[in-house]
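ligand=WQD
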Amino acid sequence: MAQLLITGGAGFIGSHTCLVLLEAGHQLLVLDDFSNSSAVALERVAELAGVRLQRDQPTLRAAPETFTLVEGDIRDAQCLDALFASATTFGQPIEAVIHFAGLKAVGESVQQPLRYWDVNVVGTQRLLSAMDRHSCRTLVFSSSTTLYGYPDQVPIPETAPIQPINPYGASKHAAESLLANLAGCSGNTEPIQASEGGWRIARLRYFNPVGAHPSGRIGEDPNGIPNNLFPFITQVAVGRRPQLTVFGDDWPTPDGTCIRDYIHVMDLAEGHREALHSLLNADPQLLTLNLGSGQGASVLDVVKAMEAASQRPIPYRIAPRRPGDVAITLANPTLAAEHLYWRTQRSLTDICRDGWSWQQANPQGYIRQT
Ligand code: NAD
Ligand code: WQD
């Protein structure tokens, strides 16, 4: 089993993936600056996995244990060097990195493009440079459906044109391009391609990750007013917000609201495990895979499913369309099924049951929990 560095491991997707990787027997070093997360998430992951969470400095004072947390910034080259070097000194070199750390709010990226390029592009570049210096050349990268912009076809295959429509998407595109270049490939790569320089890289394009671990102990905890549909709906259900605003009921869809490919965060976490194992057991290669269900749900489908799960009404009002929205996005998940033998297992009903368990048990998220 491998020693892994998980950047952004305290976040929504990272925390669930940490749990799945610990359960698979891996040893994890998490690097997070807590700019959008809480260490409590990792304490709970440790509790669920039955391991101890050790906190340390980038220059490790003790050998990494099963689950070690280091507070730091992916843009800090010294911090990264100290972490890679210390792990090696203690005889436990980092074999692979799963890189979640980044900023992800589309609207904020329009207001703060410099910050988004700094964290998502410069941060990724610093991480890759440190990996290269320390001869660690296996990486799983968090990419996004946002790269497809206004898609020309749905379900969307990995070969669809890349046409980001906001700075967040542009920053993910730049990071993806850097990864392709590192692997000796041009921008127009095939989804599965041999790579150069020993690099094993998976660029995973997530669709709409939602839900929570079924225990209700870990889940999504956005700062402030949620931008995304699912956490907004769970906060309405729990009474934190009076009603949902539905952005448009005049879209060319059966009920007039937008359709998305919602993927349970545990399915997504398992997809990371499979991608990592595939890379560790393969020749150097660059993989580019959609992680989605291929199933669509409209905004009103999600409202109804959450009403059923919570046994509470979700009041909503219809408002004009949100700028930048797309009527329908759906993954074509065939390639991940063929290459990783992975497909989603959980339904919208499961997503709402687990998302509701989390929100009901943690109405204010992690921060104000005792
Ligand atoms: P999140 O905000 O919950 O997690 C990101 C984590 O990275 C947080 O713990 C944050 O504190 C940390 N972080 C941010 N900047 C950092 C820095 N400079 N140094 C160290 N740590 C830093 O987000 P998430 O939903 O878990 O997303 C994880 C990744 O997946 C992101 O890269 C995001 O762009 C990508 N992604 C997310 C979605 C989604 O809808 N949630 C969809 C597609 C892709
Ligand atoms: C879903 C649907 C809204 C909020 C985003 C990012 C994308 C990726 C996944 C990171 C849309 C509607 C929403 C609300 C609503 N993230 N909605 N009322 O926009 O599909 O994708 O997350 O990579 O890049 O853009 O997700 O959850 O914001 O919206 O009616 O209060 O819900 O209009 O139709 P989106 P979302």
